[in-house]
Design brief:
Layout: H1 8-13, E1 19-21, H2 30-38, E2 43-46, H3 52-65, E3 70-75, H4 90-103, H5 118-128, E4 132-136, H6 141-149, E5 153-158, H7 161-170, E6 174-178, E7 184-185, H8 200-210, E8 215-218, H9 224-232, E9 237-240, H10 242-245, H11 254-262, E10 268-271, E11 279-282, H12 285-293, H13 302-305, H14 308-316, H15 339-358
Parallel strand pairs: 1-9, 2-3, 3-4, 4-5, 5-6, 6-8, 8-9
Antiparallel strand pairs: 7-11, 10-11
Helix pairs in contact: 2-3, 3-5, 9-15
């Protein structure tokens, strides 16, 4: 079949298809990353929550499964800093303790660091020869220069034009335009996240027109129609996350997978209740209870840390009530195909659609 898809960024990244699998911390793993990369896309690993030691082992596992390029994603080191002495206010503390009592979990744990250290994580990636390194919540010029000196490419998320221009000035190889439809944490790093809730249809062409570096469309893209629409807007590639959550390689916890199979766009929401930072996921008991209580939240990532025992225990019990079930608004088009088949399907259908659209139509 003829290939009508854009080639320039794919060639820069050393991949066959202009298709990136979003890193998705907590869902991506060596099996998924390698399967996507071996199929010609760019597999992605979300590594922000991995210790340097764990990250080193995981990257080695990916290298053993594929010789193709792949991406590892980190959070900007500024997100690690928070007041470790911060404690929940009375209402939040009582709510959390009630949950712990319900499940027999004892006292609510105090916050602990969950992410980073980013500088040590980056050093692991550089020493391991990771070919593409991406960032969420921004990246600075010095970090980009260090990665380029090691021969790797740099990507970073933007949710507004102002952020995208900052990333271009920092020297990134491409900007990921994260539309408001995207699942997981909003990548906003300059200003209030509300200003960054711009849909992909508006954000992508604006960045394409304003930037000299390639733009990768992300957010709500689940099938060939979303891919082709993104290319029509000028995107050099697409990044898809929720579209790969159903792949058996992710080995999602059963309650999350079941929720994804049943969800529609309006079952998702952008909320800070889970981690302390705005993120899009499927509504559940925990989100609804905390939003209804309208109590002050702990700063990110302390808000995430105090629920860690609750989340882990209830997942083992088969409950979705307290899980962080990240998902984008395209979740209604959820698929359970294996990753390699998913990539092949997406590329074949995108080429077919472009060919059909280019054919003359009768009146």
């Amino acid at each position: 079949m003829d290939d009508f898809l854009p080639k320039s960024l794919a060639q820069t990244l050393g991949i066959v298809h202009p298709l990136l699998q979003a890193p998705m911390a907590g869902a991506s793993n060596p099996d998924l990353v390698a399967a996507v990369s071996n199929a010609g896309g760019l597999g992605g690993l979300g590594a922000a929550g991995m210790s340097p030691e764990q990250l080193s082992v995981t990257v080695r596992d990916i290298h053993e499964r594929t010789d193709a390029p792949f991406n590892v994603n980190l959070f900007h080191q500024s997100t690690e800093a928070y007041d470790t002495a911060a404690l929940p206010d009375r209402l939040l503390a009582q709510q959390l303790q009630d949950y712990h009592d319900e499940y027999g979990l004892g006292a609510v744990p105090e916050p602990v660091p969950l992410f980073g250290p980013a500088a040590e994580q980056l050093q692991v990636l550089l020493e391991a020869g990771v070919p593409v390194i991406s960032f969420h919540f921004g990246v600075d010029t010095a970090t980009v220069a260090t990665i380029h000196a090691a021969g790797a490419k740099v990507l970073c998320t933007a949710t507004t034009l102002a952020e995208a221009l900052q990333l271009q000035a920092a020297g990134v190889d491409a900007v990921i335009a994260q539309g408001s439809e995207a699942g997981g944490h909003r990548g906003t790093f300059d200003g209030d996240y509300q200003a960054g809730l711009i849909g992909s249809m508006a954000l992508v062409p604006r960045l394409v027109d304003a930037l000299e570096v390639p733009v990768i469309a992300a957010g709500g893209i689940m099938d060939a129609r979303g891919m082709v629409a993104s290319f029509a807007l000028g995107a050099a590639a697409v990044q898809m996350g929720t579209a790969f959550l159903g792949c058996p390689e992710t080995a999602l916890a059963q309650p999350w997978d079941a929720a994804l199979n049943a969800a529609e766009a309006d079952d998702t929401c952008v909320t800070s209740t889970l981690s302390g930072k705005p993120a899009r996921g499927i509504r559940n008991r925990y989100i609804n209870d905390l939003e209804r209580a309208d109590t002050p939240l702990l700063p990110y990532p302390a808000q995430y840390a105090v629920s860690r025992v609750l989340r882990q225990s209830t997942v083992r019990a088969g409950s979705a009530d307290f899980m962080a079930m990240w998902a984008g608004q395209g979740v209604g088009l959820y698929s359970n195909l294996p990753a390699a088949e998913r990539v092949e399907q997406l590329i074949d259908e995108a080429n077919t659609l472009i060919r059909q659209l280019s054919e003359p139509r009768g009146r």
